[in-house]
Amino acid sequence: MTTMKRTIPLARPDLTEREVEAVVRVLRTPRLSLGPMLEAFERKLAEVAGVQHAVAVNSGTSALHLCVKALGIKEGDEVITTPFSFIASANCILFERAKPVFVDIDPKTLNLDPELVEGALTERTKAILAVDVFGHPAEWDALTHIAKEHGLKLIEDAAEALGAEYKGRPAGAFGDAAVFAFYPNKQITTGEGGAVLTNDDEIAKFCRSLRNQGRGEGSTAGWLRHERLGYNYRLSDINCALGLAQLERLDELLAQRERVAQLYNERLEPLERRGLLRRPHVAPHVRMSWFVYVVRLDERFTRRERDFVIEKLRAQGVECADYFPPIHLQPVYRALGYKSGDFPVAEAVAQRTLALPFHTRLTPDDVDYVVARLEAALESL
Ligand SMILES: *Cc1c(COP(=O)(O)O)cnc(C)c1O
Fold it and tell me: Which of 18, 23, 102, 190 could connect to 83 by a Cys-Cys bridge, CB 3.0–4.6 Å?
């Protein structure tokens, strides 16, 4: 085992000459936006998710916002969602002055617990927005059933789950509309970017219009005719070329992530056996798409001890993070009246989670280094 000090980043994109050339090729053309790369990227995305339409936009957050608008969610409506996620999955509800109604999570999968959804429904509930957190698909059968039963819209935030499967069906195919995201720490990147996925022609058309200043479709409408209030959420052809080249390598990228996850699973097994931590749970009917590798420290450890471990590892060049602090305890949500104790499972989980360095190029030696430092930090508590 190596003891030499090094820096192991929490995440890093995996780019090759292929991506560089794809980007440069676009730069030699006059079509830098709304060009052929956008169409090609969208076609490939729709294929990966097994849906009719993909609408590429400039971020995952923009994609979520368009889903919320496309489903007619508005002021006074309530949307059921998870407190254990990246903040954008709840913010997009606030953008339209609707109310996020958080429901606690399943302590194993860390996803929205379907058993708790019905208890949170009111006559104002309009939709459920569930997240495939860390690349583990949510319980889609149960959620789809509840949505049908109560006439609710359903949104899948698959920003962390490109390439995952639930009972053999790809992530991005659930609900009325779904979202992918392409920030550099995601499974594939466009620098910045996201997409809406849907089988609904009207939703797709609406999202295409809204990302492009509310313009109508087709040339007859004209460039300066705006039919509805829209945004500039366009994704340039430069970004799309990068995304397309990444998507062409998707199997390879996912296989590398799987390799690293299995290395961690193997090397962390003794730590789990000693009762120091728990490795990520993967339900048997799920294909995980590894977004991050998050361990949960044993219940005897406090939040302060977890934070101490993070600091200690960082000081040794091992970048790690406290994915995720619960959304409802973020200052912006506390100001809306949410407080500690509201969602005890999410809170108990969140104070013990620890995301370890995770990307395609980690070597067995890197993983040994991380695990040895983690073990030593835990033993020092
Ligand atoms: C990354 C992410 C987003 C937002 O994506 P951006 O492209 O950063 O706007 C939304 N939801 C979840 C769960 C994410 O992890």
Answer: 102
User: Is beta strand 99-102 parallel, antiparallel or unpaired with respect to 78-81?
Assistant: parallel
pLDDT digit string (tens) for 294-307? 999 999 999 999 99
Q: Is 233 exposed, middle or buried (0-12, 13-18, 19+ CB in 10 A)?
A: buried
Structure tokens at 36: 């052929």
Span of 11-25, 49-63, 172-186, 217-231 with lowest mean pLDDT: 217-231
From the number of C-beta atoms within 10 Å of its C-beta (0-12, 13-18, 19+), residue 335 rates as: exposed
Cα atoms found within 13 Å of the Cα of residue 344, Cβ hemisphere only:
2
CA distance 312 to 100: 36
User: Which pair of tokens denotes residue 217?
Assistant: 């479709």
The burial of 15, by beta-carbon neighbours within 10 Å (0-12 exposed, 13-18 middle, 19 or more buried), is given as middle
Q: How remote is the CA of residue 223 from the centroid of ligand 1, in Å?
A: 30
Position 378 pLDDT exceeds 60: yes
User: Which residues form ligand 1's pocket by a CB distance below 6 Å?
Assistant: 59-61, 85-86, 88-89, 131, 157, 159-160, 181, 183, 194
Whether omega for the bond prior to residue 41 falls within 30 degrees of 0, making it cis, is no
User: What are the CA-CA distances from residue 63 to residues 88, 146, 168, 367 (Å)?
Assistant: 10, 24, 25, 34
Can you read off the two tokens belonging to residue 197? 């996925």
Residues 164 and 157: beta-carbon distance below 8 Å: no
Q: Which two tokens stand for residue 13?
A: 């994109």
Query: pLDDT tens across 67-124, in order?
Result: 999 999 999 999 999 999 999 999 999 999 999 999 999 999 999 999 999 999 999 9
**Of 186, 205, 312, 339, catalytic:** 186
Q: In which residue are the tokens 């929205």 written?
A: 112
Per the listing, tokens 């009207």 go with 202
pLDDT at position 217 is 75
Task: Output the CA 181–ligand 1 centroid distance in Å.
Answer: 6
Say whether 167 sits in a helix, a strand or coil: coil
CB-based burial of residue 177 (10 Å sphere; 0-12 exposed, 13-18 middle, 19+ buried)?
A: buried
Compute the average pLDDT of residues 157-175.
98
5 is catalytic: no
Between CA 154 and CA 172 the distance in angstroms is 12
